[in-house]
Fold this sequence. Notes:
Elements: H1 11-40, H2 47-52, H3 61-69, H4 73-79, H5 81-101, H6 114-138
Helix pairs in contact: 1-3, 1-5, 3-4, 3-5, 4-5, 5-6
Amino acid sequence: MNGDTKRELTTEEALYRLGWIMLPVVLGSAYVVVMWIVPALPAVECLFWKFFGIYCPGCGGTRAVIAFMQGDFLMSAWYHPLVMYLALMYGCFMLSHTLEKLHVPRIKGMIFHERIMYGALVVLAVNFVLKNVLKFCFHIVM
């Protein structure tokens, strides 16, 4: 056996490494954009709202990220639950893999399944429908 043997990198291991690499990049970028750049920009009306009079699937996303960055998780979920869903999935994935690497008994790293992405699409779709139903049926404007 030679010294050049390499272990195959699993999807979960690659995502775990990428998760640690991207954490400071994403948080730092989100902080700069949300706290400094977005407040300095002029208010722009959503084209979806302007042309069709309904909320777009992403409506509330920026407000949700701002609320999340400020620690107001309930308002973040109200503005756009996808932000909380993604944060929860990321947190569970990273925590479970970190605990597994620390050899905590009976802890296995979370396996990445396509259904996590399908779950995100369901959250996105339900949010889109619910906000528009609230607007048109109950006159509740977000």
